[in-house]
Amino acid sequence: MKRRVLFLIPGLLLGEGAKPLRGKLLPGRKLLVGDKTISLLSDEAVAKVLEDERLIGTELEVEGLAAGDGKFEIDGIHTKPVYTFVQGERMGVSYWCEICYIRTYSPGKCWCCQEYTKLDPKAPNTPDRKP
Ligand SMILES: [Zn+2]
């Protein structure tokens, strides 16, 4: 019988022992790291990012904790744990609605105008609003 292993890590513990994992995103929420395929566990919003066909096949970095047995538990979406690389530069994965000027961190329709948001990587620590 397959048991679903999901556990919550208290926020205080994050940071210590948390380290990023970098590799190529494969379909089915997997990351190819070297010659190993790691299964990625995450919340629903992060899962949508992992299933974004614009990111599949590209190099990604995810923050979280190794969950043993070829698994990696990604931090919650509120920590913005997914990074992509644009010309070698590490950029946070985010999405942008050009109509409403709203930034989100999970792909799909804009909650305001229902248009599909555009993939818009941004440098970490830049504000959510465009200048
Ligand atoms: Zn919108």
List keywords for this structure.
1 helix, three-stranded antiparallel β-sheet, 131 residues, single chain, 11 strands, mainly beta, 35% strand, binds zinc ion, eight-stranded mixed β-sheet
Bound molecules: zinc ion
**Helix content class:** under 10%
Radius of gyration over all CA atoms, rounded: 15 Å
Strand content: 35-45%
Q: What is the 3D form?
A: globular
Please give the largest β-sheet: 8 strands, mixed
Query: Helix- and strand-based class?
Result: mainly beta
Number of strands: 11
**What integer is the average pLDDT?**
88
Number of helical segments? 1
Describe the overall structure.
The chain has a domain at 22-80. The longest helix is centred in the middle third of the chain and has 7 residues, at 44-50. It has one helix at residues 44-50, and strands at 21-26, 30-33, 36-41, 59-62, 64-68, 71-74, 82-86, 89-92, 95-97, 102-104, 118-119. A hairpin with a 2-residue loop joins β2 (30-33) and β3 (36-41). The model is unreliable at 8-15 (pLDDT under 50). With 131 residues, the protein is mainly beta. The chain contains 1 helix and 11 strands, in the order βββαββββββββ. The strands form 2 sheets. An 8-stranded mixed β-sheet has the order 5-6-3-2-1-4-7-8, with helices on one face. Helices cover 5% and strands 35% of the residues. The structure holds zinc ion (ZN). Residues 97, 99-100, 102, 110, 112-113, 115 line the site of zinc ion.
